[in-house]
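Thread amino acids onto this structure.
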């Protein structure tokens, strides 16, 4: 038996934000990030709509990108004081994820961060509040997923919280919010989305339900991501739906080791000013992981199906896998994302000098590999890597060398 869970309602299309007017409740707490939602007027509009619905509104702002455990605890304290019956998270993956974790702590104040990280171990929520998620980036799809990613900066690592309890009640997918994204954010979040769809499709937890969503998302992203990056606003609008479809797929079919590696490398070099942005990490690692996973016959066949839907040609599955890798690398080129950590720097591409020093990377490699294997996303990957294989794979991601094992 398997479970497939999505938000109860999803409002999509331009002006879907106005749906906030129809919520019924007393107090809404809006959780938001550093300023883009305020700057572009979406925060004010959300507040007005909630007030039109007759609610008292409080704003918790300043949630940082890749939110920390400390921010989660602070937000939960604010919720315990204000006692909202609606939590309205608006912005990119970061504020929405942080708000999800705050929600758990608000409902269960005694719950520690360690408790939250027990996969599918969250107690029943919605005793105090329901949750609306309004996404402003086209990648994480956290508005429909059962996940929240919180960073423990003391440990330099990201922890996924995973439970259908934190799947939002309402998702608002209004493309107007995504239109203000700067190009680099479009590129990174878009590659995050295609990684979600591809990992979900080859995951050992795949299903007919998730497959349909993943394949359609892959086709859409192939057609629209580069156009969206080049400021085609109709493509940008479609990408907002495409990433959401990918999210519905992976929330149920789970992910694989591209995400395990991205989670464990993202904050591992922060002390060198070398934070590897989630989407960029995925974009660099995905082609390497496909080469590694394709040694598993079932995964290889599934990559072949993806290549077929992408109309890439190829006479057998080996050729199809090679063409899929080539296509993804071309997307990285078109989006100015480098192919490896060594070349990942301030403007991502091309860089004179990588931000992650080679000797530091090599020194930290065994620990990162061990943590990546232990990441919650590894279990559903089609091929289980050994410590040695994970280290080799990460090295290929550092140097952009071929995966032949
Ligand atoms: N919960 C999940 O299922 C899931 C899945 C994948 C990734 N994640 C996590 O989500 C986080 C990344 O989220 P993200 O990629 O959406 O970025 P983000 O939320 O970290 O935002 C990045 C930056 O973009 C700005 N921004 C956001 N929307 C904008 C807009 N419309 N116009 C202009 N600027 C805008 C923000 O202010 C911020 O400075 C990571 O922590 C990642 O690990 C979560
Ligand atoms: Zn992701």
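Threaded sequence (405 positions):
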């Amino acid at each position: 038996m398997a479970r497939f869970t999505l938000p109860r309602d999803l409002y999509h299309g331009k002006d879907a934000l106005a749906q906030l007017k129809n919520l019924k409740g007393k107090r809404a707490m809006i959780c938001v990030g550093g300023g883009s939602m305020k700057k572009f007027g979406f925060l004010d509009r959300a507040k007005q709509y909630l007030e039109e619905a007759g609610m008292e509104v409080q704003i918790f702002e300043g949630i940082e990108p890749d939110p920390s455990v400390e921010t989660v605890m602070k937000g939960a304290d604010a919720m315990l004081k204000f006692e909202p019956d609606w939590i309205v998270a608006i912005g990119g993956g970061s504020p929405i994820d942080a708000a999800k974790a705050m929600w758990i702590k608000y409902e269960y104040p005694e719950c520690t961060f360690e408790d939250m990280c027990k996969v599918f171990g969250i107690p029943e929520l919605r005793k105090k509040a329901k949750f609306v998620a309004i996404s402003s980036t086209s990648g994480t799809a956290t508005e429909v997923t059962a996940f929240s990613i919180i960073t423990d900066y003391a440990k330099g690592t990201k922890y996924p919280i995973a439970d259908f309890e934190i799947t939002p009640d309402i998702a608002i997918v209004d493309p107007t919010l995504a239109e203000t994204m700067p190009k680099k954010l479009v590129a990174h979040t878009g590659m995050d989305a295609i990684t979600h769809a591809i990992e979900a499709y080859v995951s050992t937890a795949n299903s007919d339900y998730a497959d349909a969503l993943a394949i359609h998302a892959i086709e859409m992203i192939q057609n629209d991501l580069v156009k969206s990056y080049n400021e085609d606003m109709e493509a940008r609008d479609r990408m907002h739906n495409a990433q959401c479809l990918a999210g519905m797929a992976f929330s149920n079919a789970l992910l694989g080791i591209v995400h395990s590696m991205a989670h464990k490398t993202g904050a591992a070099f922060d002390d060198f000013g070398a934070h590897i942005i989630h989407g960029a990490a995925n974009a660099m690692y995905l082609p390497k992981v496909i080469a590694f996973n394709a040694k598993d016959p079932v995964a290889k066949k599934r990559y072949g199906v993806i290549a077929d839907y992408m109309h890439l040609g190829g006479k057998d599955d080996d050729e199809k896998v090679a063409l899929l890798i080539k296509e993804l690398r071309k997307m990285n080129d078109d989006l100015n994302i480098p192919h490896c950590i060594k070349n990942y720097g301030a403007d991502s591409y091309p860089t004179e000098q990588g931000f992650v020093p080679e000797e530091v990377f090599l020194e930290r490699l065994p620990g990162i590999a061990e943590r990546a294997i232990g990441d919650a996303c590894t279990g559903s990957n089609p091929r289980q890597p050994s410590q040695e294989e994970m280290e080799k794979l990460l090295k290929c991601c550092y140097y952009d060398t071929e995966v032949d094992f």
